[in-house]
Amino acid sequence: MGSEAVRIAEARVERRLLRYHSPIVTAHGTIGDRWTVLLTLVDEDGNIGVGEAAPLAGFTPETVEAAESALRRWAADQTDGGDHPASVTAGAAIDSALLDLAARIAGTTVHRLLAPESPDRLAVSALVTGTTVEAIAASAAAAVTAGHGTVKAKVGTHGIDGDVDRISEVRSRIGPDVRLRLDANGAWGVGEALRHLDRLAAFDIQFVEEPVAGLDDLAEVRLSSAVPIAVDESAATIDDIRRAVDSGAGDLMVLKPSAIGGPSEAARAAAIVRSAGLDVVVTSLLEGSVGIRAAAHLASAIGALDPAPGLATATLLAVDVATPFLPVNGELLLG
Ligand SMILES: [Mg+2]
């Protein structure tokens, strides 16, 4: 939505620290302390809307410095009607903040503003963390005890035997009824991925994200894979997502509102994916709770409830940008 819908009296831009309880290990590298940028909009009646820009190497094209300067330019332009900046993550912050502000003005929530009948709670998948087999298995067991019906584990960082050890132990600890999804973040080559997925399929895997990097290789793996394939960072834009659908690169698509330009752009992407008969999974970009909340409202508004959104990641944060948006009994409450 455009800024013309509301009259903005003040736009504040602040860089904020995110700190995880423990660093998050992916095949792209280890994610430790990180900066994001908060955008706070205030209208002439004192209503407030917030958004978060959360660049992350490997997932978004820009640095936090670029996102911050794009937001500062946009904020300065609000007095004379400037346009959106050429920054995907800044665009996400602006879109989210404008939606938040519009919902406050309307006296409702973002998900109800977008879709009046949408649910006010979401069952979400938990990301398990840890570096040892025992730590990962304990993290998965704790997520199930906390009420999650879906857990996700990163693979591709410990060799196939290490992955099989980890995923075998996770499956035995969570039991047969909890859904288990994997994310290789593009770690493998095509032949390697097919061999690994043959072995990992024994653990009843819901889907694997990015077993290989790039849409062509994903399409090749999907033809013979023992596990359904989800496209994530190989499709970073709407055009990529259209190509991913057309090329048969995935059985489903992961959508990160913070990485694609905001909830409105994610909704457009979801419509493209669903028109091809495929599912979408809305996930966080491991950002702070402002961005997670925006993603959760979008997931509710577009009815992306199953497969469960990957939005339990505020539990991973020791230092957040706002009141932590934590699941309760495995669900986010969108009130
Ligand atoms: Mg992923």
Describe, in short, the structure shown.
The protein is of the alpha/beta class and 335 residues long.
Write the layout of secondary structure elements.
Blueprint: E1 8-20, E2 24-26, E3 29-31, E4 34-43, E5 48-53, H1 64-77, H2 88-106, H3 110-114, E6 121-123, E7 126-127, H4 133-145, E8 150-154, H5 159-174, E9 179-183, H6 190-200, E10 205-209, H7 215-224, E11 229-231, H8 238-246, E12 252-255, H9 257-260, H10 263-275, E13 279-282, H11 289-301, E14 317-319, E15 331-333
Parallel strand pairs: 7-8, 8-9, 9-10, 10-11, 11-12, 12-13
Antiparallel strand pairs: 1-4, 1-14, 2-3, 4-5, 6-15
How would you describe what is shown here?
By secondary structure, the protein is of the alpha/beta class. 38% of the residues lie in helices and 21% in strands. It folds into two domains: 3-108, Enolase-like, domain 1 (2-Layer Sandwich); 121-333, Alpha-Beta Barrel (TIM Barrel). Strands 7-8-9-10-11-12-13 form a seven-stranded parallel beta sheet. A four-stranded antiparallel beta sheet has the order 5-4-1-14. Strands 2-3 form a two-stranded antiparallel sheet. Magnesium ion is lined by residues 183, 209-210, 232, 254.
H-E string: EEEEEHHHEEHEHEHEHEHEHHEHEE
The CATH homologous superfamily of the largest domain corresponds to Enolase-like C-terminal domain
As laid out across the biggest beta sheet, the strand order is: 7-8-9-10-11-12-13
Counted up, domains total 2
Q: Helical segment tally?
A: 11
- In total, the number of strands is 15
State the end-to-end distance: 22 Å
- Biggest β-sheet, characterized? 7 strands, parallel
